[in-house]
Write a structure and sequence with these properties.
Elements (H helix, E strand, L loop, with lengths): L2 H19 L4 E7 L2 E10 L2 E8 L12 E8 L6 E7 L3 E3 L2 E4 L10 E3 L9 E4 L30 E2 L10 H4 L3 E3 L1 E7 L10 E8 L7 E4 L5 E4 L3 H22 L1
Parallel strand pairs: 10-11
Antiparallel strand pairs: 1-2, 1-15, 2-3, 3-12, 4-9, 4-13, 5-12, 6-7, 6-11, 8-9, 13-14
Length: 249
């Protein structure tokens, strides 16, 4: 079998594998003034994994600088199960580290579906926002404050945050820099990341305190291919090209 034929078969096989895998991460981002945020959705081990990040380079000084919620729409409005929320950065209280990165913070975060908020039916938040209650919490200990999503506790400060600065509400509440990973289970059969849309990032402790959209609302919504898939497809194309060069000679 010639090199060209091998390359063609390899490319075809890899395309089939990529199609069967069905999921490449979807990343959405948005900004408003000094505020900036991103959310990446992926399917890992049969679960919807969401990495929510406050990407601003500015120092977070007041609660309205804290990213507290993410709203998104899923076609069909499926009710997903709450699996876990893990901090990707350290949590600070009164300017000192309170929890290390990798802490289970699910007891401070909630998830609900069947919403009608910002054109979205699903939401995740560490603050009540008049929407989320104690029955909506993820598994995990109550790390600070009432046993209910409330205030800015365990909200996300900016990537550029100085944990020793800020007003009293900032210093007296445990705040995570600058990202968490949220896992949701019970995905319906045939679930696709393409069914997710209408991304909105929420700040502060009330819906009126600031929000902006990601994806189609001024941010960017992009599909990020897995590096190994790109590399292997490139190898197939290279082999096919070498085969054509050899045949011309």
């Amino acid at each position: 079998m010639g090199i060209e034929r091998i390359g063609q078969l390899l490319g075809t096989a890899l395309c089939c594998v990529a199609f069967q895998a069905g999921a490449v991460p979807m990343s959405f981002s948005g900004s408003s003034g000094a505020l900036a945020a991103s959310a990446t959705f992926d399917i890992v081990g049969g679960q919807l994994v969401v990495v929510l990040s406050n990407t601003s380079a500015a120092d977070a000084l007041v609660p309205t600088d804290v990213l507290t919620g993410l709203f998104f729409n899923i076609v069909g409005n499926p009710l997903l199960s709450r699996t876990s929320v893990i901090s990707n950065g350290p949590t600070f209280l009164n300017g000192a580290q309170y929890n290390p990165a990798g802490t289970v913070v699910g007891g401070e975060y909630a998830y609900v579906n069947s919403l009608s908020q910002y054109g979205a039916n699903s939401g995740i938040s560490n603050s009540g926002l008049g929407i989320f209650g104690p029955a909506d919490l993820f598994p995990g200990a109550n790390l600070q404050g009432p046993a209910s999503p409330d205030g800015v506790q365990y909200g996300l400060t900016s990537a550029g945050d100085n944990p020793t600065t800020g007003n009293s509400a900032m210093l007296s509440n445990a705040l995570t820099r600058n990202s968490v990973t949220v896992s949701l289970g019970s995905l319906p059969a045939g679930f696709s990341l393409s069914s997710i849309s209408n991304i909105t990032f929420q700040y502060g402790t009330a819906l009126s305190e600031g929000h902006f959209s990601g994806g189609g609302g001024g941010g960017t919504g992009t599909s990020i291919p897995e590096p190994q898939t790109v590399a292997l497809l490139g190898l197939g194309a290279l082999l096919a090209g070498l085969g054509r060069r050899r045949r011309r000679r």
